[in-house]
Amino acid sequence: MRIPTTLLAALFCALAAAQVHAQGSTRGASRTKAAPPPADDTVAEDEAPAEEEEEAPKAKPKKRKASDGKGMVEEYLRDRLTVAQKNHHDQKAFGAKVSERWDKFFAELYDDRKRFETSIARQRLNLFETMTSVGPGYRDQAVSDFERMQGTMLKSFEGSQKQKMDEFFGRLLEDYKGYFVEQDRKRAELVTSSVEAWKDQREITSAADKAETKKRKDKEKDALGLPAGG
Predict the structure, then answer these.
(1) Which residue of 157, 189, 192, 227 is surrounded by the most CB atoms within 10 Å?
(2) 228 with 221: CB under 8 angstroms?
(3) pTM for the complete prediction?
(4) What are the residue boundaries of the structural domains of the chain, listed by start?
């Protein structure tokens, strides 16, 4: 039995359509499997606050400088008086320290002097008391020996006092020289800073004068009906 040509053509078309449908289903399944799982909103929400906690340290606000001549001069005066006050406190502290050293040193010298003078006087009293028991022929020799002994003691003590004072004043002068150099440096810094500050003040004052002059001229031109500027 022969199958009609039309029937065969219909069968082939049906097979082709079924094959195409099967391939499309396979590709769709593959795409479905390859798709990534949905993002976990809970994790994202948990991580977000951690990022917000790490904030950059806030920078300290910078001191704004005055923008007009009057404000600049007032600011300049405040700064100068602050520096002057600090220098004055340093000077008082240095003077107090020197005064303390001075008092301590000369108190020690005074104590040494009292002990020495007391010792000299006691020896002389002892000599007077013992002279009554010395024979007339030995008194001159005894007095001569005593005077020689006390002369040696006087020279030794005064030499020691002089050495202590030389050392003390030597150290004190070195400290004064160093302090003088420091004070001279600070004075020079004050002069330099004053000149530099005036340059800034003069510049802003000149700019303000120019702006005021321009404003006045513009008003005059406006009153005459002329174009402003220029």
Answers:
(1) 157
(2) yes
(3) 0.55
(4) 97-224
- Say how far residue 99 (Cα) sits from the centre of its chain: 29
Is 205:212 a contact under the CB 8 Å cutoff? no
Left (φ > 0), alpha (ψ -120 to 50) or beta: where does 65 sit?
A: beta
Q: pLDDT band at residue 202, thresholds of 50, 70 and 90?
A: confident
> Where is 224: in which H helix or E strand?
helix 136-224
Which carries the bigger pLDDT value, residue 58 or residue 81? 81
Coil, strand or helix at 64: coil
Residue at 98: amino acid letter: V
Tokens at residue 210, please?
């120019």
3-state secondary structure of 41: helix
